[in-house]
Write a structure and sequence with these properties.
Shape: globular
Number of domains: 2
Radius of gyration: 17 Å
Order of helices and strands: HHEHEEEEEHEEEH
Number of helices: 5
Largest sheet: 5 strands, antiparallel
Helix content: 25-40%
Low-confidence stretches: none
Strand order of the largest sheet: 1-9-8-7-2
Mean pLDDT: 84
Number of strands: 9
């Protein structure tokens, strides 16, 4: 999976962090905080991605649904909705009770708004679900923190087919995410995961 990471040198990130940290002490703005948070992650050597760019780079199926999925790391199932009337996607887990559209990242959903998605034909909403890959112990944050992380992966099909190469992400602000780990699911992990969606 091509994550299309932002090209930020660690030294450049440290210099940027120093500059914006100073600005935050003197005068605080939402944009300054977001930039400082991104530089802080990059200064630790973490790759950064723009989620909307990663989804566009991943491509779309013929029915207009994305080939890239994202969901909370503690979820087991991920659903996606794509509205025919706009260029937005909402991913949500099995615990979501509503389909919010205002906040980009909420308790049980992630929304992506971009003008780069291909148009879809027909006046109806596209919906589909798939399984969320588990985070292996070597990459897994402490249990209490798992819910604060997300998993991003390439969808082979919007059905119970297990994915192959997920990534563990932490949301920074807005469309920016830090990539904490990537891994390939083994055949054993995929075989067990394939059983998850069966009755």
């Amino acid at each position: 999976m091509d994550l299309a990471t932002l090209d930020i040198d660690v030294e450049q990130a440290k210099a940027g962090l120093d500059e914006y940290a100073g600005a935050l002490r003197a005068e605080r703005s939402v944009e300054d905080e977001a930039i400082a948070a991104a530089y802080r992650a990059a200064s630790r050597g973490l790759p950064l991605i723009s989620l909307s760019v990663a989804i566009f780079t991943g491509g779309f199926f013929d029915n207009g649904l994305p080939r890239i999925a994202i969901c909370r790391a503690d979820a087991t199932m991920c659903s996606v909705e794509r509205w025919w009337s706009d260029r937005g996607l909402t991913y949500y887990d099995e615990y979501a009770t509503t389909r919010p559209v205002t906040a980009l990242v909420g308790a049980h959903h992630t929304s992506v708004h971009t003008s780069t998605m291909p148009a879809i034909n027909g006046r109806y909403t596209r919906r589909a679900s798939t399984v969320v890959p588990p985070v292996p112990p070597r990459c897994r944050p402490k249990r209490a923190r798992l819910a604060r992380h997300h998993v991003l992966w390439e969808v082979e099909a919007w059905d119970p087919t297990p994915p192959r190469d997920p990534a563990l992400l932490r949301h920074i602000r807005g469309d920016l995410w830090a990539v904490l780990a990537t891994w390939d699911l083994t055949d054993v992990e995929r075989a067990v995961l394939a059983q998850r969606a069966r009755p």
